[in-house]
Amino acid sequence: MTESGKPILYSYFRSSCSWRVRIALALKGIDYETVPINLIKDGGQQFSKDFQALNPMKQVPALKIDGITIHQSLAIIEYLEETRPTPRLLPQDPKKRASVRMISDLIAGGIQPLQNLSVLKQVEEEFQLTWAQNAIISGFNALEQILQSTAGTYCVGDEVTMADLCLVPQVANAERFKVDCTPYPTISSINKRLLVLEAFQVTHPCRQPDTPTELRA
Amino acid sequence: MTESGKPILYSYFRSSCSWRVRIALALKGIDYETVPINLIKDGGQQFSKDFQALNPMKQVPALKIDGITIHQSLAIIEYLEETRPTPRLLPQDPKKRASVRMISDLIAGGIQPLQNLSVLKQVEEEFQLTWAQNAIISGFNALEQILQSTAGTYCVGDEVTMADLCLVPQVANAERFKVDCTPYPTISSINKRLLVLEAFQVTHPCRQPDTPTELRA
């Protein structure tokens, strides 16, 4: 926390995991300060001694709040949900909560980790795009099918949930990696409906304190 | 559910994600039936039409319970926790719950997905072992440091939590991939204390209905 008591989010404008948390903070109306961690500059600021002391996984996001530092985006969102329950990001019904967590874990554990920067660096450069596309396509094939039975206006029913916070940044990654999303009409239409919401707009990678001028919108 | 009303766990004896759920079921005293899904036989039974209808991600575990099917191990465990709260696998204090989820996500999202069978298949055979070792070592370096501030007898304090359900199967994977665990005294000693508990013993990969005779113990 800052001296003013505001939470501090260690974030990178383009990180999809950071974006998830930014949306949660925006939806819940939590005022916070951003400390940008540039994953590329200076060989990666996440590798600095100071940041490693904060998050030994050397990853963003990390959130300093209530005297503790939490990393792992879903753990952060679950903590915000338990301590700042309004508006809720998990439905009341345990079966619907299970759907939300299943979709969130599918994206946060089954797709994103396979196409993130640190993993792609381990793949030969000429295969990186295909590698990332394969991870996303394989996950989206499953996700499209699952959403067909869980979705209403959004991923699970008609309320914005943690699953939606995972969906939008992952679709943005899919677009960056030039994945054709026409085979995923459910994913695409939910994404479209979410992108017009204010909390998704103000937290968008193109509107962050650390967004380079040429990528601003 | 079976006609008798028992939950059905679709599991593979060696899958670390399946093992997590088996421990949760054992700790909570939930009687269930196992349907083995052999990830290697017949080119991988997870790719069968029947199983894909159940889990489009083509992964174990999946749990049929209370009229729904849940996949993603942590989503399953969170559902069990909400519907069968005793004994609890998440502490009452939200800050400690955050630690449990952070450690669980670090393993379930930050280590395991990078060293699982389907990913290793995409890596050239001669690099597979190094790839898996790198994922585990990089995660364990972080985890060892985190546990130094969260651990008591187990990962977070002195009660068995969801984090412990992730730790033990991941250490077993580390051993399978010949990772030297001496640089991780905290991980190793917690693992040792957990392995003697009944719920970890009866659910061990060497004691499952689908464990091949030569691997039984």
TrEMBL record, chains A, B:
GO terms for biological process: glutathione metabolic process; L-phenylalanine catabolic process; L-tyrosine catabolic process. Pathway: Amino-acid degradation; L-phenylalanine degradation; acetoacetate and fumarate from L-phenylalanine: step 5/6. Residues 93-213 form the GST C-terminal domain. Keywords: Cytoplasm, Isomerase, Phenylalanine catabolism, Transferase, Tyrosine catabolism. PROSITE patterns: GST_CTER (PS50405), GST_NTER (PS50404). It is found in: Cytoplasm. Residues 5-88 form the GST N-terminal domain. Its cofactor is glutathione. Its main location: cytoplasm. It catalyses: RX + glutathione = an S-substituted glutathione + a halide anion + H(+); 4-maleylacetoacetate = 4-fumarylacetoacetate. Pfam families: GST_C_3 (PF14497), GST_N_2 (PF13409). Its EC number is 2.5.1.18, 5.2.1.2. GO terms for molecular function: glutathione transferase activity; maleylacetoacetate isomerase activity. GO terms for cellular component: mitochondrion. Belongs to the GST superfamily. Zeta family. NCBIfam families: maiA. This is Maleylacetoacetate isomerase. It comes from Cercocebus atys (Sooty mangabey). The lineage of its organism: Eukaryota, Metazoa, Chordata, Craniata, Vertebrata. The gene is GSTZ1.
